[in-house]
Design a protein that fits this description.
heterotrimer, A mainly alpha (about 260), B alpha/beta (about 280), C alpha/beta (about 290), A: about 260 residues, mainly alpha, two-stranded antiparallel sheet, 2 strands, C: about 290 residues, four-stranded antiparallel sheet, 10 helices, 10 strands, about 20% strand, globular
Chain lengths: ~260, ~280, ~290
């Protein structure tokens, strides 16, 4: 299970890797705006897709590797395409029986597909070029104004960090517990659904128990190292710095988002 | 008995310390009863005892994770019950816990070591210096940018030691650090701790079930049912019949020394480790 | 016919990916029914991987594993093996999920399809066997037990299934001497009363070498020695001293042999080692370097 998660961080030294995580998070936000804005036409979406693919090329991640991840979403793409095509009213393009395929439906189907692809590519670009720690540091920095509204920004970032740190550990633990229960005859892959769910409980309960104990022990370990919740009074080993490439990138993002919003 | 503590400066003092826990149904469980103990700077102290004898409670009283129900715990003169001293006490007394996984917070080794130093609000340059020094001291410099979940158990524990070292403590308390490790991992951790004690004069207090590990200590304290029953050099403690009466087994070499002494052989009674025995028999 | 036969067993993790790792290579050995076999190896030697082949959790990449004469990979035999080969992983108390001690022990028995009266009888018997008192604890939540008692409970839940082969990974890790002794006693009783074959996997030899009939020494996926205890221990002593897995008293004997002492290396227990050292002290010429 070690390296097989889609969208996982890949070490590198490309210009995208070197961008400040805040810039990349804002880039992701720009992608979301471009995707969600109703004024976007298919040609503009295609242009955006080309832009992202160019960025992926810049990041030296390997276009095929990133696009390969789209395979696992093919069922989602197919379902949404079918929904849009068959359930959108408009000028009929084709019809047989009672089923009407409208021009608007096909258009919307393609547009939605492109939107989903753009979202996926934008998120992948972000997570594959930014380590989890940098991500949470960037998030913490961007959300820091919320601290004035009493939002616990620092604790939020800590929660993200700890969760990311423990995901591989918890997955490993679940596998070990599953093996132990299979050694007592538990079947996870056979029998009626309700039985399979009941068997899953034999993993979930010990996992939950272990997680609660872990939370307790982690808290003790953190306190032992002088952590006090909510203190803004701490430094950072690797602090974030904007550089000129961030400046350029932010300018490009602003211009692009501007053109999107003006449609 | 604790002469060593008196000749050197005492950095830890427990005065009439008791600790009770509340249990279901208004019961209280006495974890520690009237403990008086002093630990001097630079000592390497081992703590042994059956499960439930109060070892973990004692350890957690030393860095103010727990407060005594009665009596006083003083760290370099600072009372642990004073809220104002707690941060400084936790800086001076670092702690390493039993489960290697459940004390590592960050997804990257150098960030993990930096955590404590960051909480002290030191400059990033100083934090970096301390991280490099700490990783060097435990022999993990090569793994600076690795993810902790890929390390072995022994490496994780050494990482935990480095994380504590980054705060430049005067004393390190380890609560059964080797019980989830394999033999090579245990050995490397011990070597690292011995080096920290001998070369950097770090006071080390180690709780363990493994008597071979405690045999290298300067001083061995045995707890039983919340009280200190034995306190002295390991060779004295292992050879006393009280030790086995308390449900513990001396390490193999100490047993051999004991039986040789009983048979009337002229052998140095202080031999408790493998190295000492080999050195004696085959110099 | 041996109860377990391993022939040229090779296992590769994640074959064909960048994370490919050969965990076991060309292992061949067999275990007779009723034997107590100790498998010793450091972490990473492949012992956990090997263990999971005994009850069909893993199937060989190459070679074969035969349990009771039948190949685990053929005819889905591996999916039924859990009834005959019981596996106890390290720190088994981490897998406890039931709300009462009774339900926890009964889980495997229910999966075996036993009737309720049989289940009750077996639960009571096995709890006695591990030194726990059924009357006091069957209705309690496992959370009310101490750490050592939970370990015994987890062990009991596998023992209750009365498997022909019991495979355990470091069953006494983290236990104090009193609880450890209860575990050893329970295992020996199973061996005696049910002729259970016991296979214990460990990274340290101390207790194991006293109880086992045979030892196997694994290093980096290869079986370096298998057979009588003394032969295997001597093989182990020839490895790199920094990573030794032998208990201190045996390591002492081999260190003295290295120093040039005339020492008898046919030794297993602490008492024998003490006697041998005593003999050396009486005849100092034996250790002239």
């Amino acid at each position: 299970m070690q390296g097989m998660i889609i969208g996982q961080f890949v070490r590198g030294d490309s210009v995208i890797h070197r961008l400040d995580p805040r810039t990349k998070l804002l880039g992701c936000l720009a992608v979301i705006v471009a995707v969600a804005w109703p004024g976007q036409t298919i040609s503009r979406l295609l242009l955006d897709a080309a832009l992202i693919i160019a960025l992926i090329h810049l990041s030296q991640l390997g276009i095929l590797r990133v696009l390969g991840g789209l395979k696992s979403l093919r069922i989602l793409f197919l379902l949404t395409f079918i929904c849009q095509v068959f359930f959108t009213r408009g000028d009929p393009l084709l019809s047989w029986g009672g089923i009407i395929v409208s021009r608007a439906g096909v258009y919307l189907g393609i547009a939605t597909f492109l939107r989903l692809v753009l979202l996926y590519l934008g998120a992948s670009l972000l997570t594959m070029t930014t380590s989890s720690l940098k991500l949470s540091a960037g998030l913490e920095s961007l959300l820091s104004p919320l601290a004035y509204l009493r939002f616990p920004v620092q604790q939020f970032a800590m929660i993200i960090n700890i969760s990311l740190r423990f995901i591989p550990t918890i997955i490993e633990e679940a596998e070990i517990i599953a093996r132990a229960q299979r050694s007592r005859g538990a079947r996870f892959d056979a029998g009626p659904l309700w039985l399979r769910l009941k068997t899953t409980v034999t993993i979930l309960i010990p996992l939950l128990g272990a997680s609660l104990q872990r939370a307790n022990e982690l808290a003790l370990a953190m306190e032992s190292r002088c952590y006090t919740s909510g203190s803004a009074n701490h430094s950072r080993l690797n602090s974030l710095h904007y550089s000129w490439i961030d400046g350029m990138a932010l300018m490009i993002l602003t211009v692009h988002t501007g053109t999107v919003l003006m449609c | 008995m604790a002469q060593q503590g008196e000749t050197m400066g005492r950095i830890i003092e427990l005065i009439n310390v008791s600790k009770e826990y509340l249990q279901a149904g208004d019961n209280t469980r006495q974890a520690l009863a009237d403990i008086n103990l002093g630990i001097g700077a630079g000592e390497l102290v081992g703590i042994a005892g059956m499960n439930g004898s109060g070892k973990t409670t004692l350890a957690r009283l030393l860095n103010a994770l727990l407060l005594p129900s009665s009596g006083k715990v003083l760290i370099n003169g600072m009372d642990t019950t004073e809220p104002g001293y707690q941060q400084e006490i936790r800086r001076q007394v670092g702690m390493v816990f039993q489960n290697p996984d459940n004390q590592i917070i960050n997804p990257i080794v150098d960030e993990e070591v930096a955590f404590g130093a960051e909480n002290l609000n030191l400059s990033p340059a100083e934090v970096r210096r301390r991280v490099n020094w700490a990783l060097e001291a435990v022999g993990l410099s090569d793994l600076c940018y690795h993810a902790p979940h890929l390390l072995s158990g022994g490496q994780k524990q050494r990482l935990a030691v480095a994380a504590a070292l980054a705060m430049r403590p005067e004393c390190l308390v380890l609560d059964e650090p080797t019980s989830m490790l394999d033999q090579p991992g245990r050995r490397k951790l011990l070597k690292c701790l011995l080096q920290l004690n001998r070369e950097h004069h770090l006071t080390i207090i180690m709780i363990s079930h493994c008597m071979e590990e405690l045999a290298v200590a300067d001083r061995l304290i045995v707890l039983h049912e919340g009280a200190v029953h034995m306190d002295g050099p390991p060779w004295v403690v292992f050879s006393s019949p009280q030790f086995t009466a308390l449900g513990l087994k001396p390490p193999p070499i100490a047993s051999i020394t004991g039986s040789l002494v009983r048979q009337g052989h002229q052998i140095d009674k202080k031999i408790v480790t493998l190295e000492q025995m080999v050195e004696y028999l085959c110099p | 016919m041996p109860i377990i036969e391993i022939k040229d067993l090779t296992y590769v993790y994640q074959s064909g990916t960048p994370y490919e790792k050969k965990a076991l290579e060309g292992l061949s050995f067999s275990i007779e029914a009723g034997e107590f076999v100790g498998i010793i190896g450091a972490n990473g030697s492949g012992k956990s991987t090997l263990m999971q082949h005994f009850n069909g959790l893993l199937l060989p990449t190459a070679g074969s594993v035969l349990v009771k004469g039948k190949n685990t990979a053929v005819n889905h035999y591996y999916s039924e093996l859990w009834k005959e080969v019981g596996l106890v992983f390290q720190f088994p108390e981490q897998q406890i999920f039931a709300s009462t001690v009774f339900a926890e022990v009964a889980y495997g028995l229910k999966n075996l399809g036993l009737e309720q009266p049989d289940i009750e009888r077996r639960v009571e018997e096995v709890l006695h066997r591990v030194g726990l008192n059924p009357e006091e604890i069957t209705h309690l939540s496992p959370l009310r037990l101490s750490g050592g008692e939970r370990r015994l409970l987890a062990l009991a839940s596998i023992m209750a299934m009365c498997p022909d082969v019991l495979v355990l990974d470091e069953p006494t890790a983290g236990l104090d001497p009193a609880a450890s002794d209860r575990v050893w006693q329970a295992l020996q009783d199973m061996q005696r009363d049910y002729k259970t074959t016991v296979i214990m996997v460990s990274h340290q030899a101390d207790e194991l070498i006293l109880l086992a009939n045979k030892l196997a020494f694994l290093e980096e996926g290869r079986l370096l020695a298998y057979g009588g205890k003394v032969e295997v221990l001597q093989q182990m002593a020839r490895r790199d001293r920094d990573d030794w897995l032998l208990p201190d008293h045996l390591q002492l004997i081999y260190c003295l042999e290295d120093c040039g002492c005339q020492v008898n290396t046919d030794i297993i227990s602490l008492e024998e080692a003490a006697l041998e050292i005593s003999r050396i002290l009486k005849e100092p010429t034996r250790c002239k370097v």
